[in-house]
Input
Amino acid sequence: MEAVLAILWKILKISIPVPLFAVLLVLAWWQLDKHSAVRRAVDKAVDSYTHVTELAAANATIAELKRQQRAAEDAATWLNHQVDALQKKQAADYAINEKKDITYAQAIKDAGRGCTLNDADIDSMRDE
Output
């Protein structure tokens, strides 16, 4: 058992300092390399790429909002045309009904059976 523990201790003595030393070496190199021209060029390229992608995303958002606005305007125009057509139809129907009412009232009057109701009475009967 002691032989196994001795071997394990030798492995641990080697395996723990090696990764620790590697991490320290990488951190030291990163700290020293901060001011190198290559590092600054890479950082500048990354910043430029970030700005380009953000600009592209903003332009795509603007294009989508414009498309949605055009669709909403087209829908509003179509709806206004529908409302105008309905109002014209209702006005025409009302005019036809008024003409029919006048013609009918005149026919009754000519037949000697004139109506003694006034317009308010006729309107209230029409609404019922």
Observations:
- The two ends are 108 Å apart (CA to CA).
- The chain has a mean pLDDT of 86.
- Residues 1-34 form one domain.
- The CA atoms of residues 87 and 93 lie 10 Å apart.
